[in-house]
Design a protein that fits this description.
Distance between the termini: 53 Å
Structural class: alpha/beta
Family: Belongs to the prokaryotic molybdopterin-containing oxidoreductase family.
Largest sheet: 6 strands, mixed
Number of domains: 3
Strand content: 15-25%
Bound molecules: ligand MGD, iron/sulfur cluster, molybdenum atom
Keywords: Iron, Iron-sulfur, Metal-binding
Radius of gyration: 25 Å
GO molecular function: iron-sulfur cluster binding; metal ion binding; molybdopterin cofactor binding; oxidoreductase activity
CATH class of the largest domain: Alpha Beta
Protein name: Formate dehydrogenase
Organism: Desulfovibrio subterraneus
Length: 677
């Protein structure tokens, strides 16, 4: 048995370091019979310090799952039937490139749509398809399925300034956890919150669904979904009215303070109460407490950015975080955006934008149904190539996507590890490797760290990494660039040989860690050194549609309840759905509903209900709880269709509409009504 270092490959802010125990095989093909027997957190990882979530503690169950796809498959039954037969790699590659060549010859490369998101969050395997599709001139995917409204709103105020690294929270004196289910998504920062409370510091939660986080906090403020911008404005109204603003800093160090301050008169707590459902007195007290703190930290999740007004909401909360001058004091400011340690490596060496010779047709990831249905104004998509993504479960408008995938004229390839709801609709499935069967580098997006992880096992069965497959496909397309001749290990060495500024100060020892596998901590950002064009904080930003930030309503809809789709602690989007231990813990598809909303509909806890809107109907089991805002219903996690009553998952109820800035998903911004099933 040997222990090796690796890194969690999933879309999670921590990017935990792992220690992987491998029982080495014996006999002729020893490597092929080696097995992962245990996975633990790596105590040397500067961020997780050995603490990993329950999901990854049994990573070996996923790696060696009997449900893994281990050879290329060709569809034999109807699309979606899940009937496939194994084929050789040669046949699979020939069939894929044959379809691509035909589509290019007959209708042009912009009829080919690559589709990927967050299955593997590394540098190489996440991004390496771009080089092939750039060379081909295929569609360019606008990858805004997650938190791009958040980053757009944040940088509209502070530019490229890094936010608080969560490790700095030790110095904060007040915490506002603003729309983050930290128990699910920022586990490693929870001990700091607990320690702060033991030290007498207060923790306030601003949430639309506080079910999982309420017990970690001193106070819960339940806000109507999509209205946090009004809450932030009213808090700034109180701060301004009561002389709690750091005016010296804002007049000098920010653009447009006075112009913005004038607009605050109208944003009274009473006005915000009508909008948010938060009592005016609660808003006043929260603002006063915030204004009195020296180094208050706002820990901002991404949930409230996934709205038609999401970018503006984040802009307003970011301005609030600087209103009392907190950023200039250790532990004060905003946490939850990028702490800004990078860039670490030159990602264009992977994506190769220089290989593209046409102007790309852009397709927004959230508008897959429209692109496949031909209603987005572009030429019809003929070939779809999905990898590291499960759009049937994770992208809006499930029924529209399914309709598109069933089109007999569409040729679909899915490169997967398991028979996901998307893979079932493929014409060809290619078997994918796990992170321990790949070499790659990773950076955390919630902390300042960077690391490398090398292949620990040979690919299971006939599976291949994303990189290896794109090289095979490039060769079969006749692309002769030497880029496609390398191994992923060679590409990784090239990346490390050309480091960007985020790796500039590393010691020899740290370089040794990266050359052999492991993570290094990179310097925290200096967060009162505003990385904006003028060097000042941008309260007013002329480049924005609304130069002076102001409250905008979210998309909403005509039904009485606002539906939010929140993360689940037991899974990570649709990762881990192969794991019975986790899926059973999570239980059935649940809708959290406020007692008053349940009572008004004659619904009791545990009832089967149907949530419906103009897009469709989804069956859930109701959990009645006063920890969800009145007028809101919450559905946690992504499920597999087989776990649902009628094959419909929550994203059946999600429109394709985008956010105000950042072109992001608005998956929390839909309305429904609910009746007993
Ligand atoms: N266990 C687990 N870990 C995960 C994930 C997971 O699904 N499960 N997802 C991973 C991914 S892809 C990401 S992007 C990250 C972050 O994952 P995110 O999905 O961004 O989760 P959070 O940042 O915790 O923010 C979600 C919170 O926002 C709240 N919310 C929704 N709307 C509103 C609103 O209008 N106002 C307020 N105040 N709150 C609102 C929800 O109730 C929820 O608690 O975590 C990653 N880690
Ligand atoms: N209802 C609901 N919808 C959501 C969310 C939610 O919380 N609730 N969260 C949203 C958010 S924040 C995000 S980021 C998106 C994420 O949505 P997706 O990007 O679709 O991510 P996953 O659903 O996790 O699917 C990733 C797939 O990649 C596969 N995979 C993993 N590693 C590899 C690899 O190395 N190679 C290949 N080829 N495949 C691999 C996995 O087996 C998995 O099936 O979902 C969004 N949609
Ligand atoms: S899923 Fe998140 S918390 Fe769990 S091991 Fe991976 S990075 Fe760490
Ligand atoms: Mo995400």
């Amino acid at each position: 048995m040997n222990t090796y270092k690796s890194i969690c490959p999933y879309d999670c802010p921590t990017t935990c370091g792992l220690l992987v125990d491998i029982e080495e095989g014996s006999g002729g093909n020893a490597r092929n019979t080696s097995k992962v027997v245990r996975v633990k957190g790596d105590p040397d990882d500067p961020v997780c310090r050995g603490v990993i979530c329950r999901k990854m503690q049994r990573y070996e169950k996923s790696i060696h799952s009997p449900d893994r796809i281990l050879s290329p498959l060709r569809r034999t039954g109807a699309k979606g039937s899940g009937e496939f037969v194994p084929v050789s790699w040669d046949e699979a590659i020939r069939e894929i490139t044959g379809n691509w060549k035909r589509a290019i010859a007959e209708a042009g490369p912009e009829t080919i749509l690559p589709f990927y998101y967050s299955g593997v969050m590394s540098y190489i395997h996440r991004n390496c398809g771009d080089a092939l599709f750039n060379r081909m001139g295929a569609c360019s995917l606008v990858k805004t399925l997650c938190a791009s409204a958040k980053s757009a709103g944040y940088s509209a105020v502070v530019g490229k300034t890094g936010c608080l690294d969560p490790r700095e929270l030790a110095q904060s004196d007040l915490f506002i956890i603003w729309g983050s289910n930290m128990k699910a998504t920022r586990l490693q920062s929870l001990p700091q919150i607990a320690a702060a409370r033991r030290a007498g510091k207060r923790v306030v939660l601003v949430e639309s669904c506080a079910l999982e986080m309420a017990s970690y906090c001193d106070q819960v403020v339940l806000v109507r979904p999509g209205t946090d911008g009004a809450l932030a404005l009213a808090m700034m109204h109180v701060l301004a009215a009561e002389g709690l603003v750091d005016e010296a800093f804002l007049r000098d160090g920010a653009e447009g303070y006075e112009e913005f301050a004038k607009t605050l008169h109208a944003c009274t707590p009473e006005w915000a109460e009508a909008e948010t459902g938060v009592p005016a007195q609660v808003i006043r007290e929260l603002a006063r407490e915030y204004g009195a703190a020296a180094a208050p930290a706002i820990i901002l999740g991404s949930g409230n950015s996934r709205y038609g007004n999401g970018g503006m909401t984040v802009r307003l909360i970011t301005i609030l975080s600087a209103f009392t001058g907190a950023w200039s004091r250790p532990g004060g400011g905003l946490c939850g955006c990028s702490p800004g340690g990078g860039p670490y490596v030159d990602a264009t060496r992977i994506t190769r934008p220089d290989l593209r010779t046409n102007t790309a047709r852009k397709v927004n990831i959230n508008m897959l149904a429209s692109a496949l249905g031909g209603t987005d104004g572009g030429v019809p998509i003929r070939c779809l190539h999905v990898y590291a993504c499960n759009p049937v479960g994770s992208v809006c408008n499930q029924q529209g996507i399914l309709q598109g995938l069933t089109n007999p004229d569409l040729f679909t390839v899915v490169h997967e590890r398991f028979m996901t709801d998307t893979a079932r609709y493929a014409d060809i499935i290619l078997p994918a490797t796990f992170s321990v069967e790949q070499a790659d580098c990773y950076s955390s997006y919630g902390y300042c760290s960077f690391g490398t992880a090398y292949r620990l096992l040979p690919p299971a069965g006939e599976s291949k990494s994303n990189w290896d497959i794109f090289c095979l496909l490039a060769k079969a397309m006749g692309y002769e660039e030497s880029h496609f001749d390398r191994t992923e290990e060679e590409l990784l060495i090239e990346l490390l040989d050309h480091p960007k500024q985020g790796l500039s100060g590393l010691t020899d020892e740290e370089w040794n860690t990266l050359r052999t596998g492991g993570q290094v901590s990179t310097p925290f950002a200096a967060h009162d050194d505003w990385k904006t064009p003028s060097g000042k904080l941008m309260i007013v930003n002329a480049a924005q549609k609304f130069a002076v930030p102001c409250y905008q309503k979210c998309h909403g809809g005509s039904h009485p309840l606002r539906l939010i789709a929140v993360p689940s602690s037991e899974t990570l989007n649709s990762i881990f759905l192969e794991r019975d231990d986790l899926v059973e813990r999570r239980g059935e598809m649940t809708l959290v509903m406020h007692p008053a909303d349940a009572e008004a509909r004659g619904i009791a806890d545990g009832d089967a209900v149907v949530a419906f809107n103009e897009l469709g109907e989804v069956t859930f089991t109701v959990l009645v709880s006063a920890l969800v805002a009145q007028g809101a219903v919450a559905a946690a996690g992504v499920f597999a269709r087989r776990q649902s009553a009628n094959g419909n998952l929550v994203n059946t109820l999600h429109h394709e509409r985008l956010s105000d800035i950042g072109e992001a998903t608005t998956l929390n911004d839909n309305t429904v009504d609910v009746r007993r099933a």
